[in-house]
Amino acid sequence: MTATEAAKRFGVSPRTIRNVVAEERSEYVGRAVSRREQIITLYRQGLKQKTIAEQLGVTPALVSMRLREAREAGVDLSRLPTDG
Description:
elongated; mainly alpha; about 80 residues
């Protein structure tokens, strides 16, 4: 159900619905930082972007965007050496 649909059902504005169900900003930021670190770690381990997206339950486009942002910020995205 969208915020607009819920608003109509409960007789309030869509903005009220979004405010009621929104998570705390600090929780969102913490989750986003953790996900960004996971993306970088998995990429450095040699996983393909599509595989990373599937494992984390996000879109390949998000993985690509986060890796691009990391490169632009100067993060080392070199693949880790494999044992063997």
